[in-house]
Amino acid sequence: MDEATATRLKESDRALQGMCLTLTADYVQEVLDHLEKIGPTPTIDSRKSVSRQDIVLLHYRQPFAKFATSSPVPKDIQINVLRHDRWYTKIIDNIFNASSRQNLQALDAGSMLLRWQTANSCATAQKDIRRILLHPHVRPYRVRAELGRNNWQSLYSRLATESLVPGNTPAPNVFGTYLLQVQCRLGSSELQKNMVYCGKAHAMNAACNAGLRRRMDSHRKEIQRIRQCHQSGALYPRQKVIWAYERLTHKDIEKVDHGVLSVLPFLHGDNSYFAHFHCLLALAEAIEHILGNSGRS
Fold first, then answer.
1. Helix (H, G, I), strand (E, B), or coil: what is residue 254?
2. pLDDT for 123
3. Where are the domains of the chain?
């Protein structure tokens, strides 16, 4: 997390003491209106829907791409999308059920996210959360169709389509959740399986280098720094290197690709708007981790 965002979060957390964190109808409508300005909302019904080609070719660089409406979505893709949405909704329900069991002492000492979840534990608020996080301009059908498969073999290589190698086209300048797909070398001596890392991108201290673009730059630089230490034999402070980077820079790693999973708009407003944005994004990240560790075959 960059310093500006961390400072803003601390200031917001202090300001939110005693503030109502419940999603208001006005805020939800403002988000939906903002999304509608991007373009017509695609659907998967038989009258106005997307074609198989639209879903398969919807690249993460155009997360707001307009869909064709001339033909219905093939039944198998519709089933995958709806299956993903059932899993996603169930995870949201489980997260809120777990937070509702926290006692008052834990709530008082808890994070902004826990207080936000408690404030939005009613059915209406959770429905509004689903309307935002499962909006087709936030969670593209391409991602939902892939994650809704029963068989996840080669799944992440289909979602992570851009290399993290320096010099490649910059990542999109958006806020949201993402994944890194780490592929092992053929015949690797230690690592036997590819690795997937999910995270969120919310840095907003530079208009031209924020969100996902800034996060990918950060990953790239940290990977390069640690690899250079490995190659030169220099020591680096292990206590400051998270486990994921130990794997991302392992000698058995052949390449690292990245892809976008969800894109969340940031609306300017008071501190509650800032809180809603970060809590929705934190919730989306938690869902990615739970869904990714669900043990699909």
1. strand
2. 93
3. 19-150, 155-262
